TrEMBL record:
<keyword id="KW-0641">Proline biosynthesis</keyword>
<dbReference type="GO" id="GO:0055129">
    <property type="term" value="P:L-proline biosynthetic process"/>
</dbReference>
<dbReference type="Pfam" id="PF03807">
    <property type="entry name" value="F420_oxidored"/>
</dbReference>
<keyword id="KW-0521">NADP</keyword>
<comment type="function">
    <text>Catalyzes the reduction of 1-pyrroline-5-carboxylate (PCA) to L-proline.</text>
</comment>
<dbReference type="InterPro" id="IPR000304">
    <property type="entry name" value="Pyrroline-COOH_reductase"/>
</dbReference>
<dbReference type="InterPro" id="IPR036291">
    <property type="entry name" value="NAD(P)-bd_dom_sf"/>
</dbReference>
<dbReference type="InterPro" id="IPR028939">
    <property type="entry name" value="P5C_Rdtase_cat_N"/>
</dbReference>
<keyword id="KW-0560">Oxidoreductase</keyword>
<feature type="domain" description="Pyrroline-5-carboxylate reductase catalytic N-terminal">
    <location>
        <begin position="6"/>
        <end position="101"/>
    </location>
</feature>
<keyword id="KW-0028">Amino-acid biosynthesis</keyword>
<keyword id="KW-0963">Cytoplasm</keyword>
<dbReference type="Pfam" id="PF14748">
    <property type="entry name" value="P5CR_dimer"/>
</dbReference>
<protein>
    <recommendedName>
        <fullName>Pyrroline-5-carboxylate reductase</fullName>
        <ecNumber>1.5.1.2</ecNumber>
    </recommendedName>
</protein>
<dbReference type="GO" id="GO:0004735">
    <property type="term" value="F:pyrroline-5-carboxylate reductase activity"/>
</dbReference>
<comment type="pathway">
    <text>Amino-acid biosynthesis; L-proline biosynthesis; L-proline from L-glutamate 5-semialdehyde: step 1/1.</text>
</comment>
<feature type="binding site">
    <location>
        <begin position="72"/>
        <end position="75"/>
    </location>
    <ligand>
        <name>NADP(+)</name>
    </ligand>
</feature>
Amino acid sequence: MIQKNVAFIGAGSMAEAIFAGLIKQKMVAAENIYVTNRSNLDRLNHLKETYGVQTSTNKEEILKMADVVILAMKPVGVKDSLEEIRSFSSENQLFLSVLAGITTEYISELLGHDAPVIRIMPNTSAAVGSSATMIAAGDGVTKHQLTIAEGLFKSVGMVKTVPEHDIDSLTAIAGSGPAYMYYLVEGMQQSLEELNLDQDLGEEVILQMMQGAIDLMKSTDKSPRELYQNVKSPGGTTEAGLNVLEDHDYQDIIIECIKGAAKRSRDITKELSTIPEKTLS
Ligand SMILES: NC(=O)C1=CN([C@@H]2O[C@H](COP(=O)(O)OP(=O)(O)OC[C@H]3O[C@@H](n4cnc5c(N)ncnc54)[C@H](O)[C@@H]3O)[C@@H](O)[C@H]2O)C=CC1
Ligand SMILES: O=C(O)[C@@H]1CCC=N1
């Protein structure tokens, strides 16, 4: 457990997933977690009752307690939010931003001082200790500060420290990826009705099937292609299903999906930042 106060600016699904995970894994005590949002008091009260975290709509009150500040508002709100808190923040605080498409350089510019800024791309599986979190240090971040960020996020899943220019592309997989998995599961669930199967039974089978496929991929050197070839019998059921996927260019669609998400992350940078184009590659 680290003896640091961690403040969340933004109290949405990502902030909740992170602090739920930090508390569950006993990395940070609930009383050391401070949470604020734009103005939704009901939401703050709900989080306080559920997790025992400290909450307030008064940003100054929250900021003055913080050793580590986690920026977890929507990217579009970052400018207003940082303008609101910059006078309460200090260079002695460590800033961790989970905002898609927002560079450390831009955050430093908005803060207007030399506080260390680290860019983080986690996912909502942090709530159950299973995030795949990407971390990139901004200019001037010390090894010790990076270790603090890595330690916090290692407690809620796997961490990879990467160059900042890779974060946009990795956001598509690490950050947005869970949504594509849930979308796939939703599609399978919808098939249950058409097949006249019991919904509860079917949903349990789908999740165990996916868990098993992940366990097998993690435990073998075989490629996904070898693994699905092993499932497929000539003239069998799997082949019939794979033919449908191929007819619809399923893998091309997945590639376009990931490229589209990565492009959006880079576009957010261009839309919201004042940073010159040459630094965006
Ligand atoms: N949801 C996800 O799976 C992931 C989200 N992220 C990033 O996390 C951030 C938050 O995403 P979500 O939690 O999904 O959004 P959300 O819409 O659920 O929550 C946004 C929160 O920010 C607060 N907020 C907005 N403006 C504010 C301001 N000026 N000052 C203080 N708080 C303010 C809102 O009140 C709300 O609590 C985004 O920047 C997103 O890119 C990153 C990885 C995964
Ligand atoms: O959709 C988004 O923009 C955020 C970033 C990654 C996951 N959710």
